[in-house]
Amino acid sequence: MPSSSETNNTAEYTALLLGTRAAADHGTTTLRVEGDSTLVIQQVRGIFATRSVTLRHLRDQVKLELARVGRFSLHHIDRQANAHADRLANRALDLRRTVSECGVHPDGNGCTPTAIDDRPLAPTQQPPDAPPPPPAADIEMEDPDDEDLADIDDGEVYAAMRVGPNATPQRRRRGRSGTAKKHRRQRPPRVTRHHREHRLDEALDDLHAVERSTPSDRTTVRRARRRVGRVNSAIEQQRLRHRFDTDEKACVTDILAKACATREAARTTASGGDPPAGPATPAAGSADDGTCPILGEELWRFFDSVNTPRQEFAPDAPVGAAFRSALARLPAATSCKELLTAAPSAGEVEDQLQHVRGASSPGLDGVGYDVYQHFAAQLLPALTAAFKACWTAKRVPQSWKLGVVRLLHKKGAREDPANWRPICLQQAIYKLYTGLLARRLVRWLDANDRHAPGQKGFRAVNGCGEHNFLAATLVDQARRKRRTLFEVWYDFRNAFGSVPFALLWDALARLGVPDDYVTMCKGLYESAAFVVGNAIDGTTDPIALRVGVFQGCPLSPQLFNAAISPLLFALQRLPATGVQLSGDDCPGASAYADDLKIFSGTEDGIKRQHALVADFLRWTGMAANPNKCCTMSVQRDGRGVLKTDDLQLDLAGTPIPALSMSASYTYLGIGDGFDHVRRRVELAPALKQLKDDATTLLQSGLAPWQVVKAVKTYLYPRVEYALRHLRPFQQQLEGFDRHLARGLRHLLRLPGNATAECFYAPLYNHTKKMVAVVDLAVAFEEQASDDPESSALARIAAHKRAKYAGVKRHLERQGWKVHLSALVYGSLGAVPAGNHKVLTEHLGLLKRDAKRLDRQLSVACIQSSRRIWNLHCSQHRARQHQAPGGSRAAETGGTPPRTGRR
């Protein structure tokens, strides 16, 4: 039995594994297993899944040992009936170590010692020649829980999906579990809701009675109508708050959208214009069902032309010599070859099932991730066998390669198909398989350092933040050191949808990806097709995919990064280009997926970089939109005054517009330009919108705690990214702060002098049910105390703990784990040692930040109590003259040595 350092489930699994292994070693052919853990029994049966890698490792070991036995049955018993195991568990807890004991031989004589291997097995490694479990193994599951076994298909047999030029498959509805609906119990109505409905009936009856008895008494009639209105308002408010509890995001989105529509209508009326009408431009905040107002036949012609390659890609063309040379100079990829050669294991499939998001939209079959996750334990063997078959055959079923495209409006006229972004919704089983391929490819790229330099898109880093910081650094350095700077921003036309297939496979091969993996990727796109599902007249005919990658496939981002990597590697190797930021750092390009930016400190360098980009576009057949590209030139004349200059660059004969010194180019959501004043005022519209939305939430009728949570969850993140890279005026931030603090104080009925820091504190950890209650206090130190427990700092800390004891008990009764502590500082600079623990453990600060904050608060306390400090210094000097050989407390001026004075 494991000791107290292990979890209960680990202890149950360890005991079960010891017993089953001992039975198999003794040659047992029939085994009856009894256990008091329902979770462990159901996981071994295959009904429940587990997220813990340790428990999954133990579960697989138990299954292997049970397969050695041959015939076994699993039974759940009550804990009281398992007295021997309960006694053994209590003994292990008392001894604080792992012990094992046999029920038949308590003294250990006559037993074969059985040990388990604590080292976790590699979940992705499985011997290829390992024999399968014996087919004769008979698993008896007595006392099954029928309500836990859901009917997967309700007896419906799905016919084979026809795919062809004359077949127009319709997307199925999302799959649901019929048994789950059958066993779902209807929740009884709330008491408050029933009481309000009863009050509404009484108010309506009184109104009808008043209107019949005294219709001429208008005062009484108005009073009765106001009562009905108040009850209706209370019911609507209760429904709104209940919706926030059930669907928080949709509730807040609808509240803000309605308020935005009201403001737009009022602004239009005040300006004397008519609101926009017609389906082409729906009003802000109106219900948009997502239907594209374009006929299916027109969409079919548009996407058929878009999915036709502009030219045939020639990997050995002379114009691509620089890109082939850049890839050829890469070192050999020798690490982690097994990631792209070994077939997926059951552990990888289970990890992928738990990694995906269950709310993702399903494909044509209507089966989403949530269905696979709900029946993960039952479907895991079938999914593993299917994925291994696809890996071995290096292709997937044809029905997996038919996706349904949903068009999302970007901007501009809604009647133009080019203003809609195609998002491909594919079957969940296809995305599970390609997700496995993508995760393995990413791990292989990381191990072999094959990521393109400057490419931050679709990687586990803060790519947007790093690129925007680099952009601000380039401009600040050019302004501060009075250097020249040349930049070019590129906008690729339909970047993901115009990548040639041959470029994908050629780039993967030159990066060192094994041929078998490249063949598997080819099999995903052979005879692939899609249909547009949200046309105004229904689903279109299938459209063959002859170029580009699926937008929505987990593997597509990594394939696109591989296709664009030859350009980035070639730009890195281009000599005498880039901007020298430090001794070894001289970047020349930054990319976030298809958002490319090049920069150099010389005009000749930027022109050679631009020529390389143009050669890449000619080599691959991809195209850029010159009107959406931009150049910037920062130069100075002989007197050091900035001058505007046009680089006169072009793409396919079309000139690229130049950026003036006072303008900016929107790059990764932030204005990028030389004018620092524009970067300061750029956040003003966002703060104005944020202030209006905060007012809407304050007046929405939500509960006060719901308003605070909505503000922290849906308003603050909208400006957090911009605040990291922009430098707004302090007046703008203070105006928003005062507006929000004033509204929240009024909503929460707080006094005007109440602190506003709680409005910006992070939300509680609702998942772990943990909350930290910390109060800051300053103790008045008049003289030293030999007993640290009775010092002023200790007394005020005890006072704060007693003050919040009631709050702690209230939260603990609701199941919260409360950390109650106090940050105490002395008026003479004394700092208890426990402050550092509060800052690091309870508030989660880094040690470096905790030390800095602790020092700043101590200094602030001394400065705010300057007169106390002066009096202390004068008393200290007087004691030194009067008692030079006195006690240590008199010599140090009254600060006990245990307080850690600074």
Structure description:
GO terms for molecular function: nucleic acid binding; RNA-DNA hybrid ribonuclease activity. It comes from Phytophthora ramorum (Sudden oak death agent). Pfam families: RVT_1, RVT_3. This is Reverse transcriptase domain-containing protein. This protein has about 900 residues and is of the alpha/beta class. It has six domains: about 10-145, 2-Layer Sandwich (Nucleotidyltransferase, domain 5); about 195-245; about 290-305 and about 330-450 and about 505-545, no CATH class; about 465-500 and about 555-675, Alpha-Beta Plaits (2-Layer Sandwich), CATH 3.30.70; about 685-760; about 770-900, no CATH class. α7 packs across α8 and α16 (about 500-510) crosses α18. The protein is about 45% helix and about 10% strand. The longest helix has 29 residues, at about 220-245. The strands form six sheets. It has a five-stranded antiparallel β-sheet with strand order 9-10-6-11-12, with helices on both faces. Strands 5-4-7-8 form a four-stranded mixed β-sheet. A three-stranded parallel β-sheet has the order 1-2-3, with helices on one face.
In short:
Helix content is 47%, strand content 10%. It has 902 residues and is an alpha/beta fold. A five-stranded antiparallel beta sheet has the order 9-10-6-11-12, with helices on both faces. A four-stranded mixed beta sheet has the order 5-4-7-8. It has a three-stranded parallel beta sheet with strand order 1-2-3, covered by helices on one side.
